[in-house]
Amino acid sequence: MNRYLPVFVALAGSLVSSAFVPSLKASEFDKKTIITISQPIAVEDTILPAGQYVLRLLDTPSRDVVYIFNGEETRLIKTILAIHADRSEPTGKSDLSFYDSSAGEPAALHTWFYPGDETGFEFLRPQHTAAVNSNATLGATRKGPTQRSQPTNTPSTGAGGN
C-alpha cells in the first residue's frame, strides 16, 4: 500500500493543477485575435506600421475596452474604449472593415468582429482622416465617411482568432 502512495499523490496533484490550466490559455472570452497587416493602418489616432498585432478585450462587465498589443504581446500599444456594433450574418473568420481614406493616408480601422459573433466593436475615425474627407479639395473624388469591408484573407490584412 505504501508503494502506491506516491502514485496517488502525483495523480491527485495533476488533477488539481489541470483545473487551473484553462485560465492560462487564450479563450473566446477575451476575443483574442491575431492580425497581420502588410501596410500601415490607423486605429483611432494611432498608426500601426506593417506587422503582426493582437486585439484582445479587457475582462470587464461592459466588455468594450479593446487592447492592441504587438505580435508577441510584450508591449501594449493602445487601449481603446470601443463602441458596440452589430451585423446580421456572423462569419467563421475575424472580420475587419475600414473607413475610406484619402490617397496617401493609411486605411483606418472601422469595425472588428470576432468569428461567429453578431456583435463587434466600432472604432472612431481618426481626426486627420475626418478632416481630410470633410475639407474636400478641388478635384477630390472621395465622398464622406463610407466604409469598405476588407476581407481578412486579402494581401493587405490577415486576421485569425486563437
**Approximate strand percentage:** 35-45%
SS content category: mainly beta
Major sheet:
7 strands, mixed
What's the total number of strands? 12
Q: For the terminal residues, how far apart are their CA atoms?
A: 45 Å
Q: Can you tell me the overall shape?
A: globular
SSE order in H/E notation?
HEEEEEEEEEEHEE
**Helix percentage range:** 10-25%
Structural notes for this entry:
There is one protein chain. By secondary structure, this protein is mainly beta. It has one domain. It is 14% helix and 36% strand. It has helices at 5-18, 127-134, and strands at residues 33-37, 41-43, 46-48, 51-57, 65-70, 76-81, 83-86, 95-99, 107-113, 119-122, 147-150, 157-161. The strands form two sheets. Strands 2, 3, 7, 8, 9, 10 and 11 form a seven-stranded mixed β-sheet that branches. It has a five-stranded antiparallel β-sheet with strand order 6-5-4-1-12, with no helix packed on it. A hairpin with a 7-residue loop joins strand 8 (95-99) and strand 9.
Which features does this protein show?
single chain, 162 residues, mainly beta, 2 helices
